[in-house]
Specification:
Elements (H helix, E strand, L loop, with lengths): L6 E5 L3 H13 L3 E5 L2 H10 L4 E5 L7 H9 L7 E5 L4 H10 L3 E4 L6 H42 L4 E4 L5 E4 L1 H6 L21 H12 L4 E10 L3 E13 L6 E9 L1 H38 L2 H26 L6 E2 H17 L4 E8 L2 E3 L1 H21 L5 E11 L2 E8 L18 H14 L2 E3 L8 E8 L2 E3 L5 E3 L1
Parallel strand pairs: 1-2, 1-3, 3-4, 4-5, 8-19, 12-14
Antiparallel strand pairs: 6-7, 6-10, 8-9, 9-10, 11-13, 13-18, 14-15, 15-17, 16-17
Helix pairs in contact: 2-3, 8-9, 9-10, 9-11, 10-11, 11-12
Amino acid sequence: MDSPRAYILYIDDDVGLCRLVQKDLQRQGYTVEIAHDGVSGVARVARGGIDIVALDHTMPNQGGLETLAGIRQLAEPPPVIYVTAMQEGRVAVEAFKAGAIDYVVKDVHGEFLALLHRAIEAALDAIKLRRAKEAAEAENKRASQLTQSIIDTIRDPLVVLDERMTIVTASKAFLTIFGVVEASGRRFSDLGQHQWDVPALQALLEKVFSENQPIESFEIEDDFPALGRRVFNLNARKVHQPGNHSHRMLLVFEDITDRKQRELDAQMLTNEISHRIKNNLQLIVGLLAYESRSAAQPDSQGYNAMQARIGAIAQLYDLISQSSRGQDVAVDDYLREIAKTISASLLGDRSGITIDVQADSLQIDPDRAVPFGLLVNELATNAIKHAFPDGVGRVGLSAVRIDDQIELTVADDGIGMKGKEPAKSPELSEKRGADYVAIFLRQLGGAIVPSASAETGTSVRIRLPLLVAPVGGPKRLAA
């Protein structure tokens, strides 16, 4: 058996009309109950199970308006259709003011039942819409509560922004850490002491919405109430729900103050250790220089070569100890220091040989900087020893980035190769020096490449894998 379309209570003292209404509505598929006075009608509604009430205006003892008031006082009153034989606007206005949802006149050329049926249908449609709205609101509330619960479990502060940069919601961590009592509905840039009102940050946030461009590790350093000087990493993503045209942004704040301090402490320790290693190596260089002055000519040359090699390593650690960017070494500064060391150990103040340096702004890590520096030292030393029999000339050191490689060039304007291959040139003809060069090339994964022949001088070009990168780092803003 099909379930009834709805449960109707008809309240009227006219017994005949009640029976007529009941039969007509039952034929339409409704279940209809009858009450012949207002008191019993209110009592029946109070027991529950009634979907719609049709209430007569004129009844003995308790009239329709008083009965309507009693129904409206119940916990969950059903909608009431007011019924009267009086075609007066005043009655309709009073009924609507008292809470009726519709008004039907009993006898309008025999159309009362049809009008009542249409009123009941309209009331049922209104009930369905209201229930659907309530269900949607309840679902949205559950989804909102779930979303807020997820947000509140995230340990890092987090806010959700709309396209006007207004906070939709904020996590408990955000409210607690930044001491914000209420964030929802406020502009993000207005929070606190306007620490977030930064043009560079605002421009990036706008691009998150307009260009769907996320923010990755944007650093802000500032003084925060009750926190002191802190450094935060900001990360942002645009999010949206399918079928929903509104967009939101998740903005997460990662406190990296302690991590930055640890990195600074580690850098200071590294610099101190590098400084001490440099001092020890310089001491060895000094001892070699002392032995060189008292040694025979062949031995003196060996001491000088050893002095230059150790000096190149010492200069590496000197650069590391002075670096403000951690352990990476600037290639251009490194080449200049190597040139100074070679000049001091092999040339002296009165030499007619000079060493020039031209290099891009590149960096190299210390592990590969050692064989890199020794390779430069070996090639430059060999050039000084073999290219200038008259003791006058120029040696050029160059390092540039070419695509995914670095090209190191050691060139001189000396006597030249005289038709020999680069690997057979005078600069690389000494077996020990050639062996050293081969070892350093293997360590770096590099190779000698042919150079254009010249009337004078020798140029040794070496291609290495990309051991260096352009100088630069993440976006950072300090207040």
